[in-house]
């Protein structure tokens, strides 16, 4: 399989601090790849560079043959990269349905005149978008809450809405930033099935930042480990569990697993 | 279009037609004299202005205090063009010209200022409107501070009524489309909106330009109805009173804007007999509403025939 995402020698410097330094990695189409590391290791900074929120100081990022740095987040989203946020960011006062539909803005481009005059082309497109929304609502088990304000939903459901909204942009790759944070074991188990379905049903490539190691080890096909902005290890879950540098980073130096 | 949609559209059309006939009857019977007609037209113009401002403030969440500036552009475009072309055609041409100039000015003002947030944006848009006013105040073609007078009376209340209906239909259609949702998404969370592919500057600008163009329409109507305009008619206080209508009705509710514009318009007229006490009572009414209903009269509630019909059907079953 060819690489969907390639990151080569990416560095992000905040003043004198190298938040991410000389990181290279690659993700193949259809993979679930996890990025782990202690707090402050630079995981979210790396995610932010991949999604165009911040620009790398140096290095290259290519997604499906297109360079990501220099593009704005909205443009990156159009390339086919979607994401969720560490602290959930929903459109709180919009209904779940409207949250999903807002994410289709760039996919079904509307034109001003058909909108305000409600020409037939408006209704045709509206119907396509509505069908796609209904499919997503069913797939993510959100039909019952479709007309509720997203901000009033329980935490676990909000996570699901956020993931559904990311899928609504029809991406090729989805980045999940600590999706299991604050979830109880049942919710985490449901999340695991959901992420697996992203891969199997929606044919998405998944990039995952997560602290819940059981989740990471059971989901990820490959893992990259970041510490103090540097890549200190990579490999399959089994390899990572044996990696002394990784264990040292998590448990402190000199400890043997 | 499905059957339900036709029904909803028909209901709205019937409502508009009923309103038109009602006013017509009242005029013929004599209940609506010149004084009341004046009030109705003022309310209508305020509705056009405030619904447009609500798209900017309530839907895209951008705090603009420069709405009167765009109204001035429309008013002066009409005043200048109808002075040499005093026909109904001339009036509509001038309205179009006003809209085009407003759109251009809104884009010029919007691109740099819409990057600002909240109170900074309010100050920037207020400054922009003041610039428009000062320019008008100093141009020869606008007759400077003396203003323009003897503008031909090319529009009565029926024209205003039809324009209120048209602009409202357009603005509501925009608000209730996916584009409208994109604009609301930016209000809710700009970072998340960007992450799902909504370019914030583009959509904020779209809402701003739309609001500005309806303000120009209101300005044109104002010019031909009042027949005299001076730069002081479009000062900061006018922008503020439009803001009051939007906030009072409920930010983000078009129905609320309608009700607030009508309530304040009537209140303003009724209180005229109280003389100086008028402003005190007016202010008191505002304070009371804001204390007891901080989200405005209607909050985010929106009247909908679609919901009304489904409810009725549900209760029949």
UniProtKB/TrEMBL annotation, chain A:
One cellular component (GO) term of this entry: plasma membrane
Gene3D superfamilies: P-loop containing nucleotide triphosphate hydrolases
Alphabetical UniProt keywords: ATP-binding, Nucleotide-binding, Transport
InterPro entries (alphabetical): AAA+_ATPase (IPR003593), ABC_AA/LPS_Transport (IPR051120), ABC_transporter-like_ATP-bd (IPR003439), BCA_ABC_TP_C (IPR032823), P-loop_NTPase (IPR027417)
Span of domain ABC transporter: 5-253
One GO term (biological process): D-alanine transmembrane transport
GO MF annotation terms: ATP binding; ATP hydrolysis activity; L-isoleucine transmembrane transporter activity; L-phenylalanine transmembrane transporter activity; L-valine transmembrane transporter activity
Pfam families recorded: ABC_tran, BCA_ABC_TP_C
Name used for this protein in its record: Branched-chain amino acid ABC transporter, ATP-binding protein
Organism field: Lacticaseibacillus nasuensis JCM 17158
Lineage: Bacteria, Bacillati, Bacillota, Bacilli, Lactobacillales
């Amino acid at each position: 399989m060819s690489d969907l995402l390639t990151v080569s020698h990416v560095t992000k410097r905040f003043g004198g601090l190298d938040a991410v330094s000389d990181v290279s990695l690659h993700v193949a189409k259809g993979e679930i790849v996890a990025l782990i590391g202690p707090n402050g290791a630079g995981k979210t900074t790396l995610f932010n560079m991949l999604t165009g929120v911040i620009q790398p100081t140096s290095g290259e990022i290519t997604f499906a043959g297109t360079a990501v740095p220099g593009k704005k987040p909205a443009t990156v989203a159009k390339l086919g990269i979607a994401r969720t946020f560490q602290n959930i960011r929903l459109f709180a006062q919009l209904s779940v349905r409207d949250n999903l539909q807002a994410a289709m803005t760039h996919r079904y481009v509307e034109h001003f005149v058909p909108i305000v005059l409600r020409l037939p082309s408006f209704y045709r497109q509206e119907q396509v978008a509505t069908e796609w929304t209904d499919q997503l609502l069913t797939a993510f088990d959100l039909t019952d809450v479709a007309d509720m304000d997203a901000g009033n939903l329980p935490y676990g459901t909000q996570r699901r809405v956020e993931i559904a909204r990311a899928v609504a942009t029809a991406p090729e790759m989805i980045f999940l930033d600590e999706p299991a944070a604050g979830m109880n074991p049942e919710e985490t188990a449901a999340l695991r099935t959901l992420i697996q379905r992203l891969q199997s049903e929606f044919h998405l490539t998944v990039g995952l930042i997560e602290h819940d190691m059981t989740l990471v080890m059971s989901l990820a096909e490959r893992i990259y480990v970041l510490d103090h902005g540097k890549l200190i290890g990579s490999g399959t879950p089994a390899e990572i569990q044996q990696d002394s540098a990784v264990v040292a980073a998590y448990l402190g130096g000199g400890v043997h697993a | 279009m499905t059957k339900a949609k036709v029904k909803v559209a028909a209901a709205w059309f019937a409502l508009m037609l009923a309103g038109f006939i009602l006013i017509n009857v009242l005029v013929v019977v004599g209940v609506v004299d010149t004084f009341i007609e004046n009030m109705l037209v003022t309310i209508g113009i305020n509705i056009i202005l405030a619904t447009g401002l609500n798209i900017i403030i309530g839907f895209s969440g951008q705090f603009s205090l420069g709405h009167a500036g765009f109204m001035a552009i429309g008013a002066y475009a009409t005043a200048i063009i109808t002075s040499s072309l005093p026909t109904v055609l001339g009036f509509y041409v001038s309205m179009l010209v006003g809209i085009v100039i407003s759109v251009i000015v809104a884009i010029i003002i919007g691109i740099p200022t819409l990057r600002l947030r909240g109170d900074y944006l309010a100050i920037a848009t207020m400054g922009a409107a003041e610039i428009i006013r000062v320019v008008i105040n100093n141009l020869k073609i606008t007759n400077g501070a003396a203003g323009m007078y003897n503008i031909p009376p090319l529009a009565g209340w029926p024209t205003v009524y039809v324009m209120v209906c048209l602009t409202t239909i357009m603005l509501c259609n925009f608000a209730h489309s996916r584009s409208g949702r994109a604009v609301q998404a930016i209000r809710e969370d700009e970072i998340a909106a960007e992450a799902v592919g909504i370019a914030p500057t583009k959509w904020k600008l779209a809402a701003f330009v739309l609001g500005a163009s309806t303000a120009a329409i209101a300005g044109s109507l104002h010019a031909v109805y009042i027949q005299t305009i001076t730069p002081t008619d479009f000062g900061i206080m006018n922008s503020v009173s439009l803001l009051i209508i939007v906030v009072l009705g409920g930010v983000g509710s078009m129905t609320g804007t309608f009700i607030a514009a009508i309530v304040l318009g009537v209140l303003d007229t009724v209180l005229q007999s109280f003389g100086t006490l008028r402003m005190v009572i007016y202010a008191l009414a505002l304070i009371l509403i804001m204390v007891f209903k901080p989200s405005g009269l209607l909050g985010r509630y929106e009247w909908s025939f679609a919901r009304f019909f489904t409810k009725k059907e549900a209760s029949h079953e």
